[in-house]
Amino acid sequence: MSTPLFSVPIAPCGPQHPGGTITCTEPRPAVYLLTWISPPDNRLTVAFCRALLQALDIVEFGGYKPGVVVTTSGIPKFYSNGLDLELAINTEGFWQLFYDVWVRFLTYPMPTVALLNGHTFAGGLMLAQTHDYRLAPSPKGFLCLNEAVEHGLADATASSLDDALAFVADRQLVEKPAAGVYGVIKTELHKDLLAELRKEGVDAQELRFQEDQRRESERREFGKVWFQQYTQEEKKDKAKL
């Protein structure tokens, strides 16, 4: 067991989410393993998202050699059970924070690997998809789709950290950020998606949604008026007969 490099606390979010930690270890040189434990099932709360962003910042700016970031769960049954939807809906600013986590992974200047060592549902699977590589649980575990590798949701299967480290070595991932342009390449690759996820894009989407709602309301009102006129004309035509 490698010695922890650092640990970031996950603050409690109500009685259902008592909080936890994200701990970083270095099981191989320049391979940074972020292990989160947030009972009962690693829900993506505001506190979880903030802690994850902080952990990623520490790896990048804390003086560590550029390498590979692997994320996994210290709760064997769940990588992440996704959002607490009611809490998300009722927490101001949650969605932009959640999208900020996606943006961080999509542009992170080191290869990122999601070691899915347990069930990965809904928002948890979305988070995994923002990593560069995904290792599906083996021999069992659900990603909302059992045939994850065959359908391209995962790059391989893994039953342990050793499998993940073998994947990192086989793909020579530690060497990828050495030139210093890995994050730039990812940013360019995902530029259209990033434009939608960042605040300006989210605000623009909200304005488009409101405009679509206004037009739909006008269309419905027009339809009602048209139908009233239509039925009146029908009555007049019948009266003439």
TrEMBL record:
One Gene Ontology cellular component? peroxisome
Species annotation: Moelleriella libera RCEF 2490
Q: Name one GO molecular function term.
A: delta(3)-delta(2)-enoyl-CoA isomerase activity
Protein name as catalogued: Crotonase, core
Q: Which GO terms describe its biological process?
A: fatty acid beta-oxidation
CDD domains of this UniProt entry?
A: crotonase-like
Q: Which InterPro entries match?
A: ClpP/crotonase-like_dom_sf, Enoyl-CoA_hydra/iso
